[in-house]
Design a protein that fits this description.
Elements (H helix, E strand, L loop, with lengths): L7 E15 L9 E13 L8 E14 L11 E13 L7 H7 L4 H18 L18 E2 L2 E5 L1
Length: 154
C-alpha cells in the first residue's frame, strides 16, 4: 500500500453528520465494551490544477454495550455516528490516478483518526463517557483488537 500522506495534503474537512444517543446513564466505574468502526469511501473530484484532488468520506460508528452483553438485539448504552468529508490535494510527484488513490486510501487513517477524535472527545465528555478512548492509528494493524474494544477499518 502506498502511503498517500507523502504526496497528498489535507486541504479541507467538514463534518456533515453527527448523531449521538445516550440511552442509559453510564456510571464512571461501569464496565462496558465499545465497538468502533471506521469506513473510508474515496471519491473522484473535478480539478483544474495539474495535480489531482480527491475526496474521502470518513464514517465512524461507535457503539457501547454493557460488559458481557454482546447481543445485537439489546439496545446499546450509547451510539455515536460521525461523518467527515475530507479533501486531499496532491502536492508533489507525478499525478496519482484515482485507482491508485482508491487502493491506498487506508493510509489516510493516520491523519483522520486524530481529527475524528478531536471532534468526538467533547461529546464523549458531555455524555460522561470519559473512559472511552478512541484509537489514533490503525495503519499498522488493520484489524487490531485491544482489551474492551474492537476496531475495524474498511
Amino acid at each position: 500500500m502506498t502511503n498517500l500522506l507523502q504526496t497528498f495534503s489535507l486541504s479541507h474537512t467538514q463534518v456533515t453528520r453527527l448523531n449521538a444517543d445516550l440511552n442509559e446513564i453510564v456510571k464512571p466505574d461501569q464496565p462496558f465494551s465499545t465497538k468502533v468502526e471506521l469506513k473510508l469511501s474515496p471519491r473522484e473530484m473535478n480539478h483544474e490544477a495539474e495535480l489531482p484532488q480527491y475526496q474521502v468520506t470518513a464514517r465512524m460508528l461507535c457503539h457501547g454495550r454493557k460488559s458481557g452483553s454482546e447481543s445485537e438485539s439489546e439496545q446499546p448504552l450509547f451510539k455515536i455516528e460521525l461523518v467527515l468529508q475530507a479533501v486531499y490535494s496532491q502536492f508533489q510527484g507525478e499525478p496519482v490516478s484515482f485507482e491508485t488513490f482508491k487502493g491506498s486510501h487506508g493510509s489516510l487513517t493516520r491523519q483522520l483518526y486524530p481529527l475524528i477524535h478531536h471532534q468526538l472527545q467533547p461529546l464523549l465528555k458531555q455524555f460522561g463517557l470519559n473512559q472511552v478512548k478512541l484509537p489514533y492509528d490503525l495503519v499498522q494493524n488493520a484489524a487490531a483488537k485491544t482489551e474492551g474494544s474492537t476496531h475495524q477499518i474498511h
